[in-house]
Fold each of these.
Amino acid sequence: MRVRRLELTDFRSYPQVAVDFEAGPSVLVGPNGHGKTNLVEALGYLAQLASHRVAADAPLVRAGAERAVIRAVIVHDGRELLVELEIVPGKANRARLNRSPASRPRDILGALKLVMFAPEDLSLVRGEPAERRRFLDDLLVTRLPRFAGVRADYDRVVKQRNALLRTAYLARKTGGGSTDLRTLDVWDAHLARHGAELLAGRLELVDVLAPYVEKAYDAVSQGKGAARMAYRCGLAEDGDDVTADRGVLSARLLAALAKSRADELARGSTLVGPHRDDLALRLGELPAKGYASHGESWSYALALRLASFDMLRAEGTQPVLVLDDVFAELDADRRERLAELVGKAGQVLATCAVASDVPESLHGARYDVAGGEVRRVR
Amino acid sequence: MYEGAIADLIDELGRLPGIGPKSAQRIAFYILGADPADVARLASVLKRVKDQVRFCAVCFNVAEEERCRICRDPRRSDEVICVVEEPKDVIAVERTGEFRGHYHVLGGAINPLEGIGPDNLKIRELMLRLRSGEVKELILATDPNTEGEATATYLALLIKPMGLSVTRLASGLPVGGDLEYADEITLGRAFEGRRSLDV
């Protein structure tokens, strides 16, 4: 899979821009703040329907414009696919595939599969559990787009259930008393059903991904330490293992909800479910978070992305690889090794402020990005 | 900007669902230029809809009398009730011509985020209807989204002890569609609700 052309209208700093890309490695070079990352961010948005930099859509639309449009031609198996997405902050986005409207933006997921390395990745290792859950869920959707629906359904149920618990909590606090909790059982059942589905997806993913992470870390760090990854599930707190059987998971979630109901009512929020889980990253016997050095943390973050790429490739898709400003963060050794490891990708797009930061082997096509213009120079 | 009556009209139209500022302006100027008789008819319909239309005392569909047209129809079966969220859902099911029973309009779905619980819906009234003993089957036709599914589950739990047959509308593939183009959620649901093929 590769991106043949990217066109942006009123996206971030660009009123209008069009760039043609080729297979193999390309480097986008330009001073900071001139819009390199905006280009790859747009591609990331097409692949995930979310930005890797911001949570809200408003910053993606150029100041003064009403909407932003991302348009990309994707080549896959020799066929061209035109994917268009219109971002209107505060409203539902609109998507088109080969010029016919998609019934939901979600339908374009899978059209572009992409693995992105970004400076923000360090927080996969050092940040909060939410960052790692997002990493897993994003990869889950890239691998099996059906999970976009599972994830949305689950989030919605948690929101509704929290609203119900919150009203009950407030009513109790103000002495109002009779809040309607009769529907709580219903929300429990739905949370267990969608939660089990999401949980099973994550567990299966971690099972498949873990060996790739170990291998990738070994390659990036040149054999310094073993990276082990495990899904940390709230259901496993009693010491038993969790397996990816949806029926069993659903029953266990229901039991856990029943057990923590009093607690949930006292705190007014849902305390059980995959939205509270984490991905445990260990180096040797120690947790990576808090113990790994800066360099080791970076190696781990790179290993997670490389493993994602290797797994998708082994499963038959060749994702586009994006390296957004990561080389500046790495020492010379890691740069070379990373360049070597991603060299096998069908298409690599790397951004950097200084061209010499990017190892020679990735210097294919070169684009200069400055002042809102993108110019191919080689 | 505009002033006086035309500005007021644009403001009022702009508050309607699905009408943005530009559409409001276009409609306002269309009305300004339209035949006075047409405008008078529109005005009188608008007034009448609030004065005369009310909700059916039995099923809570929109009606002009105490009971709606469907509830008054003696040819329809009293044994089946189809539960829907909104009056427009009644129209949708009626268009199929497949259903010859009665309806019950809940007036929404359970939605804690908007503060809507079972007491805000016509659920007590539904239970009263079911107690009359004539109803044998209940079809739950709430929307196939999070809130509609939760409402259906809630009703099913409530009604199960009464020994009625409770069914949920199947959600699946659109007729005339290509399997290849069905999204995976729809296709997944269609798989879940598959049935044996009688030949």
Amino acid sequence: MSEPILELRGINKSFGPVHVLHDVDFTVRAGEVTALVGDNGAGKSTLVKCIAGIYPTDSGEVLFNGEQTHIHGPKEASNLGIEVVYQDLALCDNLDIVQNMFLGRERGRAGLLDESDMEQAARKTLTSLSVRTVKSVRTPVASLSGGQRQTVAIAKAVLWDSKVVLLDEPTAALGVAQTRQVLDLVRRLAEQGLGVVLISHNMNDVFEVADRIATLYLGRMAAELPTKDVTHSQVVELITAGRSGDLGIARPENAVV
Amino acid sequence: MTTRSESTVDIANGDVEPTRRSLWQRVSGSNTVWIALVLVALIVVFSIARPDAFLTLFTAQTLLIEAAVLLVLGVGMTFVIITSGIDLSVGSVLIFAGVMAAKTMEGLSPRSDSTGAGWGVILVGLLVALVSGGAWGLVNGLLIARAKIPPLIVTLGSFGAALGAAQLITDGSDVRTVPKALARTLGSGTSLGVVPNLVILAVLITVVGDLVLRTTRFGRYTYAIGSNEEAARRAGIAVTRHLVTVYLMVGVLAGLAGFMSLAYFRTTTISGHSTDNLNVIAAVVLGGTSLFGGMGSIIGTVIGIFIPAVLTKGFVILHVQAFWQPIAVSAVLVAAVWFDQVRRRARDQS
């Protein structure tokens, strides 16, 4: 088992009177896909936004590469090498693949753009991810399919020498073949040594690519287990009830709240 | 790994060179080319009809001069429309800047007659024109980007306010003294024998605008914001600051256009620019810049400026009633926008 690259300890987060995250521990390991599952409202998105620096945490520790850090904003998160691919992808339809991948971080001197350098780097990244489904890196994003857009969004995230990539429901709107492609891509990211966090509602996807499964239940980390040690139905029980047999949160009468 | 039906090319291998689409594909896919063909066709028709009158140096010179002021406004407007904004105030800001410049130059001259003023006074006048144009642009930009008021409303407001302010300053009557030195050089002078100086200035602005839009980060961000503002924000682009800068730039360019107009007409022409905003917007849209943002080019705007100008000239020469010109331009404009929407729909479905 590899060293944790990102480690969260005892994270708490409230929005006014609503306590969304309770003492959440969460670990991301380099070279592994960690699935983050949980029902609607369990706190998955909040946890991701805390990692991405969009929400400040109320208490708890964040360790990156074993060193304690504080992530105060999206810029700091990306400086550390943490990238998030949101569900709505946030691509510019009128711009082409290269322009989207480098958006906000264009290469070139004195405000001038170095198009050929960016094009080469974009191609190199896509090649390293074995992406073979786009005709040209100069295709406008508007004319790409859903799976290709997802691919571009993920490639954009790994272009920056990222260490941790968080993917929010990357297969939610995709067909069978495209889901296949994206899952292959997720696997390859981990093989390249990145820590990958996959948020998904789809148990098949989770069991297919994840090395570990972390289950949130009403803002608490119910269990964080290797995929091979749990079954499909156990995970579903963890999601819906917060526990399954010996796993998960202790019964309410024993719990220390 | 794939069961996709669409053709896939291995981009890793260099054996297929897919990156540059064929010239024809790129050319036929853009509105700009079709609209350029319309312009060429118009020129050819008028040239054949009256070769003696249309294909003359004088016609070319006046055509270019009349387009010069609109072109300067059009460069700024292209940036604004690409961000999916709009600026209705350019004509009024032009007048305001011209009035401010003219009044300042008069104030710095003996007996409020700036006819004999020297270059020092003229430069101060230019500076005043740019600053007063820029001030309106800054106000527009801050209200749009910070206060998040729709650009249509903000610039409709400044459209009225800038004109009103110009009339307040002048009591509604045009300033009639303009430095001779300015009128003779920038206003009606020529360089290289035949090229009007006004046109040289407009071309310079256009070339710089085109380079900024196509080859710089500033231009790229302009497209990105118009395409998907939220994505631009998440990519770390300072969207608010960028929008303020774009509107500021339009204001400064309108100020420059006001100064050019002052030099050419030798008066402030307060009542002569009430439809400049619509003419410029029509030209920009005609040139293939999408009102939905994210798409457009300066070269398209140049063509879009010249279609109405050529039509007007041609109708005058052919003794067609000049009132046909707005009808013809409007028809082309509506057709161009319709074309753009059909194209977008086709693209989004693919």
Amino acid sequence: MNKAFTLPELFISLLILSLSLVFLVTFSNSYLSILNDIRKRYLGLNVAQAGLEYAIALRNKQIENNQNPWSGVFSSGSYCLSFNTTTKRINIFSSTQPCPSEIPGYSRLLFYKDFENPNNNNLNNARAIKVISESYFGKDKIRLDIVLTKWHPIQR
Amino acid sequence: MASNTKIKGFTLIESMAVLFLFTVAIVLSSQTYNNLVNSSVLSQNLQLAFDNFRFGAEKIWNEIKNGSNFIVSQNSIEFLDRNCNKVQFYLNQNNNIIFNINNNETPLFDSELVKFNSFEIFYDQPSGNSLIDPYFKYSNKIFLIKYSVILQAKTLNIPLEIYQVVAPSNSAFINNPCQ
């Protein structure tokens, strides 16, 4: 008597076939998904870098004016920095929540603290400040930091 | 002597059913394979376009970071680079950014991969004096560059709008280190 395929055998073979098809479809979609993630993270990186650039510019402006380099950030904490294209000035204000950035869907928050003495909350006399810039997008965030001295490297 | 052993073959219906299932499987597999190849080519092209944009934008960022003597208009920026060469970036009529160094012009981006809709530069105004205007300065402290581009991947065009911020290194005290 010739034995035909049993139901479990057929079921298993169909399952394997379906799984391989699903795997191929998922694999093809993951290419574009990865690329989209790269794009999102690149934008997030730019938003975080922009925060550091604002902090550098603000420090340079104050040094040039012979004023305290830590303009508007006299105590350690979190701040929002942005550039107003109408007034052509950098805005800074204290905030505990991230503020919208130049790119919709991306927000940013900067943290200032004394680099030499992290427990010192009064930044007036700090010689160097650590600035941390964080950008937030969806569930992800990117964090960059820099140490700013109270003098400019090319100061004469 | 006649044999009473009956050799049983496939019936027509069985053969048809097998052929049908086989055809369906082949069609599904080839469609999936086609999609896989297409998305691979598409993502490779997009990656190329994205990298091309990224490298060009980083070139602009680096040059401005180390530049001095800035002369800025809305979609053009001219300055001296770290070696005191005269450098200019501007948007031309072919929707590409031109990198001009000592009057030698080079397109910065591959026109087949990146097409510019706009290239805008925002900057702080070096005016006023130290007593009444806290923005008194000798040189620009900040540049905000807005890129609005289309990444071209043959079958798919993806718009990208991105802002880049640069605080030039030579922006305190001296505006002309090349003198």
